[in-house]
Amino acid sequence: MSQNYYLLLRLWLTPYNHQLYSLERGSSPKQISISLPNLSHHVVSNSCSGLMCLYTDFSCGRDVFLCNPTTKETRLLPSSCLAAKIKDGTILGVGMGHDCRGNDLIKVVRMWISYHNSRSKNYIVEEYDLRSDSWRIIESANPWSCEFETGSFAMHFKGAYYWWGKVEGMTRTIVRLDVGGGILNKVAFPKDVDISSSSGRYLGVLNEYITLVCRNCCHQNANFDIWAMHGGGTVDSCWTKLRTIENSSSYVPLVFWEKNELLFKMFDKMKSYNIDTEEIHNVNFENEGRGIADICEAIFCVKSQISVHPPLPTMTQLGGMD
């Protein structure tokens, strides 16, 4: 019986050859052919409702694509007015999600930093709506004066975007922003955890709970801990430690997949950790007899027939245009 989901991986085969592969349990990885100018210059951000979001690293995220890996449909999103206006800006993160309040409409979010002068930073968030096929700047108050770096988008969950941030220039934190805008709120997270390194942290969803994988800064062996959050990021949220993964100091966490399993990479090898049994097994990613140099990104994606194009207007909407 065919699974209704798969793991998507952007593999680095040679310095200038990146390929997108899908993997299902019990089968070999299969290359996915999608129509992109050059996959080596594209970063896979995340997936939502069967679509995945990619952005062009070469253009610093100004070119954003939606792709359905099931139908192989790909589309370059229209440029925004902000992209044409900001000449001195840098894009810090690109991701996608959906609006729980509006029939789960697909959204794409992009955060910019603009420098008014050498001392002033201005963070701007814009959001793309698939229904209207347009971008708009969304209000995002920043009372904590959080700062963000390149690659700061972490994930989307239940109508909220989550970002990696810093407070007072040093302290690392997780920041939540509701779809459609609002206040950038700090998310309380466990004490004595280390989320300073992008290769030593992962924020995902496990059994409908926001789950953090990171090192404990008090552990001499730097093993990874797995924490589940109860409370959805509100002030009274609390965390429960699920597991400590022994002998994991050289691992890089990638993504949750296969129910309760966490995929890691260790150099050019892949391992999967079962959170229930605490067993670790190797995952075969051999490609036509050749090994892989690295895995750039890994995302969990459901199979769907959702189109990357804006939906056609309904008869009611057409009638209202008369």
UniProtKB/TrEMBL annotation:
Give the protein name, as stated in the record: F-box associated beta-propeller type 1 domain-containing protein
Which Pfam families does the entry link to? FBA_1 (PF07734)
Task: Please list the residue ranges annotated as the F-box associated beta-propeller type domain.
Answer: 46-288
User: Which InterPro entries does this entry report, sorted A to Z?
Assistant: F-box-assoc_dom_typ1 (IPR006527), F-box-assoc_interact_dom (IPR017451), SCF_F-box_component (IPR050796)
Q: Which NCBIfam families match?
A: F_box_assoc_1
The organism of origin for this protein: Vicia faba
Tell me where on the tree of life, at the top rank, the source sits: Eukaryota
Q: Which residues form a coiled coil?
A: none
